[in-house]
User: What shape does this take?
Amino acid sequence: MSRTVRGAVIDAIGGKWKVEELELAEPGPGEVRIKVMASGLCHSDDHLVTGDIPNALPMVGGHEGAGIVDAVGPGVRRLAVGDHVATAYLPACGRCRWCSQGMQYICDTGAGMENGFGLEGNPRFSRSSGQPIGAMQRLGTFADHLVTDESQAVKIDDDLPFDIACLVSCGVATGWGAAVNAAHVRPRDTAMIVGAGGVGMNAVQGAHHAGAAYVVAVDPVDFKREQAMKLGATHAFASIAEAMPFVHSVTNGQGADSAVITVGVVDGALIAEAFSAVRKEGRVALVSIGQNEPGIPISPLEIVTYAKTLRGVLFGNCNPTSDIPALLDYYKAGQLKLDELITARYTIDQVNDAYVDMHAGKNLRGVLIHEH
Assistant: This one.
């Protein structure tokens, strides 16, 4: 059996999102069906359109979501019908080598996500013609209902607004964790955040709450620099080059203690520039993705003699089952700004307009509100 749902699909690189009726399979063993209430309009979904993330198409977009469990399959243990949940765009099986060491963000069951099918390789969405449709990160929060493994849904408090809760499913945790878990920002540090969008703004918040003396936001868009100053940045500049005189003035010419790169699409030259901006033993955390680079122009001599570190970051190196609820508790305690991140709300029929706004630099985070 299946049910008819409404969702936004991308069919080809360079295309536009098409809102259509789809068939959604019933939840199988270990799976839950979620009535999606809200979805963040993350840049990662736009990478499906641009081809910056290689995925099999067609695909239902969306991975940053929150909603209500309205059906469960056989063997589900973590969740029950009626539970409010945030989606976890990375699974956490709890059994593999990585999960058992507290590194759920690289859980083995995350392999094969590029086709968008379930853990067993079974498509959850299809067209009426029978054509299987993948789902972004095995979720598809641009649909008003989705079916996913219970390992990709995290129970949250019932009193949390869905448009707020969905933000922690990706952008907030990724940015926050990039600063705190990967760049290891410490009290009195000088931290540079390169890119002040939906992820970077939360790296700003993370660096601020970690105790950095100077949080330097770098973004070419005036609006984003202004907002960064409201969310914890102490200074903001349009480029790394413009930021460096200030950074050198407060670090005795040494450079920033850490840099977090969160721009929409990165290239090797920007990575190298950020790497040069940090001091000896400095740390660069790379969140952004881009087309495969033939090389990053960083001198091996600089790496070795200055003992610098460049590391990749996935989901802020967070553990979804613990960090999603913890960040939401932090919000409820008044210590994490989430309401301020939402620049605009859209209906599913406005999804293409939302991404036009994102590319124009108008949004920190747009949120899609499903109408039921």
Q: What stands out?
A: The radius of gyration is 20 Å. DSSP finds ten helices and 18 strands in the chain. The chain has a mean pLDDT of 95.
